[in-house]
From TrEMBL:
This is SSI family serine proteinase inhibitor. It comes from Streptomyces bikiniensis. The keyword Transmembrane helix does not apply. Residues 70-154 form the Subtilisin inhibitor domain. InterPro entries: Subtilisin_inhibitor, Subtilisin_inhibitor-like_sf. Residues 1-20 are annotated as: Disordered. The lineage of its organism: Bacteria, Bacillati, Actinomycetota, Actinomycetes, Kitasatosporales. Keywords: Disulfide bond, Protease inhibitor, Secreted, Serine protease inhibitor. Belongs to the protease inhibitor I16 (SSI) family. The keyword Secreted applies. Its main location: secreted. It is found in: Secreted.
Length: 179
């Protein structure tokens, strides 16, 4: 049997010169450096706190954040057919319900429940909503002011089923009237 041909060998002239060995230094990513720095600061703070001093002196007081302004609404009702229901009433809600609204406490409780349920009782009925053609009477109301930190300017009627539902959802802010 003939012998297998020998594999070609590279001559010294045809071999590529080997690149000189360069030491490679791997640097940690910037985020890793930040983590290490924060860890050192935290450990130093703990050691200082354990020693009983902060080294910083007294800390400044925290800034006070003003509480949100209480709800303040003006409710104007007309053409209800009930003299005690017609008129303009002020309603203030917050720590203590106030104003000259005839049912201030219950009205504020209702507004609070609506806010907790994340409902906006002042949003108008969408124009594309199909509403029952039921007439609830000529009564009109307008509510203006501030509720949950935002401006309110809403009009109410009892012209159809959707408007009647919207009105009744806001009772006793709006008076109980039946056409």
């Amino acid at each position: 049997m003939p012998a297998a041909p020998a594999a070609p060998t590279a001559s010294a002239e045809s071999a590529a010169p080997a690149a000189p060995a360069v030491p490679v230094r791997i640097r940690p990513a910037p985020a890793l450096l930040e983590i290490r720095m924060l860890r050192r600061i935290a450990l130093a703070s703990l050691a200082t706190a354990a020693a009983g001093t902060t080294g910083l002196g007294p800390l400044p007081p925290l800034p006070l954040i003003a509480p949100p302004a209480p709800d303040a609404l003006t409710v104007a009702v007309s053409r209800s057919g009930h003299p005690e229901a017609d008129g303009t009433f002020e309603l203030r809600c917050g720590d203590r319900p106030g104003g000259d609204h005839p049912a201030a406490e219950r009205a504020c409780e209702r507004l609070e429940r609506l806010a907790e349920a994340d409902e906006d009782p002042f949003r108008p009925v969408p124009e594309d909503r199909v509403c029952a053609q039921v007439y609830g009477g000529p009564v009109l109301a307008r509510v203006t002011g501030t509720w949950q930190g935002r401006e309110v300017d809403a009009r109410f009627s009892r012209a159809n089923g959707c408007e009647i539902d919207r009105w009744e959802n806001l009772e006793p802010v709006l008076p109980l009237v039946r056409g």
